[in-house]
């Protein structure tokens, strides 16, 4: 209660609902409402319109303590799917962005998911090229260079690839391709939010 009181004193609202914080980082009602959905080969917390506040708090608000809370329902959903995973990795960011923020939100999330699943976390990929943010609509959204990511090390078996938001699906697709080139036999996905439901189509 002390941390919640301090956060309230500093003007921090619950990033999930915008209401009063009665627990640290996330209010009790929002904690109870965290349920991940499964869609074929991916799991996610919800549509961006519903869980976007949590994404923004983790990604831009430097509320890194949210990572364990948000990873728990994702790990539970992954476990329920029965995927025979060898490890967990994350969609990497560019070094300047990493230095500016101090951490990569998908990696923070992936590390917690791996810990909860009892699996190794590895930085399998590196981002080698810049690409602009993906729009949520239009045919141009899927046009990303094929060399956006490159393997850093070799892996085998099935792997879980974690990102914070599935927008058009183009970035995840390029990362998935690189992970397959690294030796993964199969790639599953986990996200906090989905902006465009149409992007889930290929993973059914």
UniProtKB/TrEMBL annotation:
Q: Which InterPro entries match?
A: ComF/GntX_DNA_util-trans, PRTase-like, PRTase_dom
Instruction: Name the domain of life.
Output: Bacteria
Family, similarity comment:
Belongs to the ComF/GntX family.
Q: Which PANTHER family match?
A: DNA UTILIZATION PROTEIN YHGH
Return the protein name: ComF family protein
Source species of the chain: Thermus composti
